[in-house]
Specification:
The structure holds two protein chains of two kinds. Chain A is α/β, with parallel strands linked by helices. Chain A is built from four helices and four strands. The chains are: A alpha/beta, B alpha/beta.
């Protein structure tokens, strides 16, 4: 097998987040295939456990993509989402895991360039940091 | 589980030449024995193909379907409709967007694209099997009332537009002015409270001394801008300064303003907020021209940082300049100054000439319009958010430029931020149309993807009540949280925030999200 491919999970809100990804695709932008989009109704739906579970299941990096904070479809959803992500980041720091692995982004549905940028950045983080070192035996 | 699944893939969306092998994708998705039918059709949006799919679904007694195509909103809605006709619950049709998430972005990498498509199809199938059938319910609206808060230019236009849709309109006007508008006008009244949700609001209105309850289906906030005040160093230095409205009154009564007329944008030029808006500019230009026409021999100045004469107002700007109104543009760092000892003279550095000019003042007026102070009370009553400037905040601009985040509540005109009359009227018409249509639906449709509380786990901590922007969760008679399904918009914020994990959003449950993530991570691409 060739070199290990990074695994990136992206929780994208159904509104602006996913629209930004779709617009990127339709405007002919290619991005790394390692991203796994998981659709959620709103970035506020994302819960700490979803992110941590994804990391446990083998993701090298996780991002959450929501609407712009002042223009969220559900008013305060992306602000709530950011709170959760920040909480997970502080938890990761306590656990000795690089907090760069988890990131929150905001995009508007018209930002075609944004999604490929995010994927490139997170894939780069995943490649650089590699898999999360697991202490205490194999799972 | 005894599900009978149909897998349908669309060639038009997915089979780019030499990129995906749809046969293998279909095979990956059809490995489970629950899949009783799998079809690869040319175009899933095509009527003929939809007929074939529906016939097959009926024959095999399918009760769940997986569609491998585009986004749900891009696939012909007739497909979903024919599934519903064939007895499939609408929430048990799962769409996997292979076109935008696999085909288009990974054109250069067929091998990984193939693996990704197969994994996505499997993840979609697993998600489909975990979905619950959902029903939608309806509640009748009790009235067709549309309440318009404010009887100004935008409010009256909103009432006209709503009435044209067949709704009964009620204008709540703070002042005692009698306007001409369709429906009922309640003068001297204000909104003090509101209960309910879009479609069935109960408003508390204070009319004079009395307090009344008023049922309505939709609300349009058209409170307009506030009244200008005279706060700032310029107004302090020149005691005789007036607001633009006062200047208008002076001109209306036929009294010629004393000496040269100077209209400055704001009494606080060095202040942080630029409260000077186009509404004021249109009026300022009009009044400057009127002043010039009343007393052609006196000078008229407009001193400004930024002239916002939008659209056809540009013609007024030109006309004013041709009449002889002088425009002086300044920069905030070198704003106009008045020495309190000599309040009839203003010094200002002209940005275009870089000269310091000395302007003699006869009448000084300010064009700034602050936000309406009533907005706060209305926003509190209706539970809608405000902008930092004190206006009513609208929802997502691309989707709803005249709606608030709360369904059934619309906003227009200067209630959001000061704007020109034309713009305010256009927004009023839009908001009235939206409100009228909303009210004339007659029924509130609710249910589907909404949140649910597991009352055994709920610790009544009120976190969901505080987080929800729509007031859907409340503490019920049992002392536990409950969700008002009519108000729930299905965002799932409460489910994410609940510290006891007592709330689940239907069909986006923790298990479903975790399972989808796990399956997607299982693929090697």
């Amino acid at each position: 097998m060739s070199e290990r491919r990074p695994k990136v999970v992206g929780f994208c809100c159904e509104r602006h987040g996913l629209d930004a990804a779709v617009l990127a695709a339709r405007s002919g932008r290619c991005y790394d295939a390692s991203v796994r989009i998981v659709k959620v109704p709103c970035s506020g739906r994302v819960d700490q456990t979803h992110i941590l579970q994804a990391l446990e299941d083998g993701a090298d990096a996780v991002f959450v993509l929501g609407c712009l904070e002042k223009n969220c479809h559900y008013d305060t959803g992306s602000i709530e989402g950011r709170k959760r992500v920040e909480y997970v980041r502080s938890t990761l720091a306590d656990l000795g895991i690089e907090k760069e692995r988890v990131e929150m982004f905001n995009a508007s549905s018209t930002m075609a360039w944004k999604f490929p940028e995010i994927v490139t950045r997170m894939a780069e983080v995943a490649k650089r940091l590699g898999p999360i070192a697991k202490g205490g035996g194999d799972r | 589980m005894k599900a009978r699944v149909q897998v349908v893939a669309c060639r038009c969306c997915t089979e780019m030449p030499k990129l995906l092998d749809m046969g293998r994708v279909m095979q990956a998705a059809s490995e489970r024995e629950l899949v009783v039918s799998s079809m690869l059709v040319d175009r899933v949006c095509d009527g003929k193909n939809i007929k074939q799919v529906a016939a097959e679904a009926r024959e095999r007694e399918v009760d769940r379907a997986l569609v491998l195509a585009c986004q749900k909103k891009d696939v012909n809605p007739a497909l979903l409709a024919s599934y519903v006709k064939a007895g499939v619950n609408e929430s048990l049709v799962e769409y996997v967007d292979l076109r935008d998430e696999v085909v288009l972005p990974h054109l250069g990498d067929p091998e990984r694209a193939q693996a990704k498509a197969e994994t996505k199809a499997v993840a979609g199938l697993e998600r489909l099997l975990m979905l619950q059938p959902l029903e939608r319910s309806t509640e009748d609206m009790r009235t067709t009332n549309v309440v318009v808060l404010g009887g100004g230019a935008s409010g009256r236009r909103a009432a006209e537009a709503a009435a044209a849709q067949g709704a009964h309109t009620v204008i709540i006007e703070k002042s005692g002015k009698a306007y001409k508008a369709p429906g009922v006008i309640m003068p001297n009244s204000t909104l003090v409270g509101a209960k309910g949700y879009g479609g069935n609001f109960v408003l508390t209105i204070r009319a004079g001394e009395k307090t009344e309850q008023l049922e309505c289906a939709a609300v349009v906030v058209a409170t307009g801008g506030g009244w200008a005040d005279l706060k700032g160093p310029l107004a302090k230095a020149c005691k005789s300064a007036v607001t633009l409205y006062r200047l208008q009154e002076m001109l209306d009564t036929g009294a010629a303003p004393k000496g040269p007329v100077v209209i400055v944008d704001t009494p606080d030029p060095a202040g942080k907020s630029m409260a000077v808006q186009d509404f004021a500019w249109d009026d300022a230009l009009d009044l400057a021209m009127r002043a010039k026409k009343t007393a052609p021999l006196e000078e008229v100045y407009i001193v400004f940082q930024e002239m916002r004469a939008f659209g056809l107002s540009e013609l007024r700007y030109k006309e004013a300049a041709e009449l002889g109104v002088r425009f002086i543009r300044y920069e905030r760092t070198a704003g106009p100054k008045i020495d309190p000892k000599e309040p009839t003279r203003m010094t200002v550095k002209d940005l275009s000439q870089a000269d310091v000019l000395s302007v003699s003042i006869g009448t000084l007026a300010f064009a700034a319009i602050p936000a309406n102070r009533d907005n706060q009370g209305i926003a509190d009553a209706l539970r809608i958010p405000m902008s930092p400037e004190g206006g009513v905040r609208r929802g997502s601009i691309q989707r709803w430029p005249v709606s608030t985040p709360r369904p059934g509540v619309f906003v227009c005109g200067s209630a959001m931020f000061p704007k020109g009359r034309d713009m305010a009227e256009a927004e009023g018409e839009a908001a009235g149309l939206m409100a009228g249509r909303f009210a004339m639906q007659g029924v509130i449709e609710y249910g589907g993807v909404v949140a649910e509380v597991d009352q055994d786990k709920c610790s009544a901590c009120l976190t969901c009540v505080r987080t929800c922007p729509y007031e859907a969760p409340f503490i019920g008679a049992a002392g536990k949280a409950e969700i008002r399904a009519q108000a729930c918009q299905g965002c799932g914020m409460c489910a994410g925030v609940c510290p006891s994990k007592a709330i689940e959003l239907r069909n986006f449950t923790d298990d479903q999200i975790a399972q989808e993530t796990r399956t997607m991570l299982g693929g090697d691409f």
